[in-house]
Amino acid sequence: MLHFALVGHPVAHSLSPPMHRAAMHGLQLAGRYTLLDVGPDDIEDPIRELRDGAYNGLNVTIPHKVAAAIHCDRLTSEAARLGAVNTIVLGEDGMIEGHNTDLPAVQACIEELMGELSGKNVTILGAGGAARAAAAASMDLGAKQVRIHNRTRDRAEELVYDLDGPIVIVDDLESALSDSALIIHATPFGMGLASDDEEYDEAYQVAQQRLVAAPPEAKLLDLAYGPTDTPYCAAAIDLEIENQGGLNMLARQAAMSFELWTGHAVDWKPMRTAARRALG
Question: What CATH homologous superfamily does 103-245 map to?
Answer without folding.
Answer: NAD(P)-binding Rossmann-like Domain (3.40.50.720)
